[in-house]
What we know:
Order of helices and strands: HHHHEEHH
Radius of gyration: 19 Å
Strand content: 5-15%
Strand order of the largest sheet: 1-2
Amino acid sequence: PPFNLLVVDNAFLDRQFHISELDCVLKLDKKSSAGPDPIHYSHLKHLPDGFKRFFIYFLNYLLDGGNVPDHWKVAHIVPILKPGKDPSSARSFRPIALTPCILKVTEHMIKNRLEWWLERKNKLSHPYMGFRKVGGTHSCLLKLTSQL
């Protein structure tokens, strides 16, 4: 199996988030659409430091209590017409779920922490290359080509 999580050191994973982790996520050039709330990435990117500290405090408070606000669990589903398809057929559309940007930023912070921990603690087996920063499709193809 690709995961080796028999022994888990939660000290790093359980620590509270820091404003530097928020800044790391907000530096990314996101052009994602806002969800049900009217908050966009550009709003979050341009928050003054005091509001960023409050956001981190609030996020840590929610996560410590194991609570997620109900409005973070709501998504707008928007149908997008597939190229060259008949707009009169429902099968010609693919659904896109627009979730709140605050939730997306929070998920990205959690993802960054998990990725760092998994790589640092060697919790993924070496052959496992999917969805990793190191390796990827080209590594699999190179390995396959060399073995053939």
